[in-house]
Amino acid sequence: MAKTIFEEMGGTYVRQGDYFIPCLTLPAEKENKPIGVWGQRHKRYLQEHKRATYTTLLTSGKLNSYLANIDEQAEELFSRMVKQIAEREGVTEQLKAGNQLEWVQKMNSIRNRAVKIVNTELIYM
After folding, report:
1. Based on the structure, what is the number of domains in the chain?
2. Origin, by domain of life (predicted)?
3. How far is CA 32 from CA 5, 7, 64, 67, 117, in A?
4. How far is residue 96's CA from residue 82's CA, in Å, rounded to a whole number?
5. Which residue, 112, 105, 77, is CA-closest to 91?
6. Does residue 5 lie in a domain region?
7. 13: how many CB neighbours lie within 10 A of its CB?
8. Are 40 and 46 within 8 A, CB to CB?
9. Cα(34)–Cα(99) distance, integer angstroms
10. Per the domain annotation, does 6 fall within a domain?
11. Contact 103, 96 (CB under 8 A)
C-alpha cells in the first residue's frame, strides 16, 4: 500500500474503532511569556471575531508570543495615557494629600478613559 503524504512527512495514525485518525500536534513556541489581561481580551476578540487570524496564529505556533507582545504594548500605552491625562488635568500628589476623595474620583475617570483608548486602538481592532 502506498504511503500518504501525511505518512511521508513523518506523521502517524491511531486506530479508533474502524477508523485511522492522524496524530496531530501543534508546534511548540520558542518563548512562553505570560499573557496579561490585555492579551486575554485580545485573544477572546480574535476567537470571536477574527477566527482565521486566531487559527493561523495558533497553528503556526506564534499565538502566545503575539498575545504577549500585544499585552506589553497595551500596558505601555495605558500607563503613558494615564500619566499624560493626569498631568494635563492637574491631578497631582498635592491634590492626593489635600483631598483624597476628589483625587480618587479623577483618577478613576482618567483610568476609564485610558482603558477605552487602549481597547479602541489595540485590543478590539
Report:
1. 1
2. Bacteria
3. 31, 30, 7, 11, 28
4. 15
5. 105
6. no
7. 13
8. no
9. 38
10. no
11. yes
C-alpha grid cell, residue 91: 491631578
Whether residue 8 lies inside any domain: the answer is no
Question: Tens of pLDDT along 13-55?
Answer: 788 888 878 777 767 777 778 899 999 999 999 999 999 999 9
Instruction: Please state, as a whole number, how many other Cβ atoms lie within 10 Å of the Cβ of residue 39.
Output: 24
What pTM value is reported for the model?
0.77
Q: Which grid coordinates are listed for 66?
A: 503575539
- H, E, C per residue of the chain: CCCCHHHHCCCCEEEECCEEEECCCCCCCCCCCCCCHHHHHHHHHHHHHCHHHHHHHHHHCCHHHHHHHHHHHHHHHHHHHHHHHHHHHCCCHHHHHHCHHHHHHHHHHHHHHHHHHHHHHHHCC
Residue 116: give the domain boundaries: 31-123
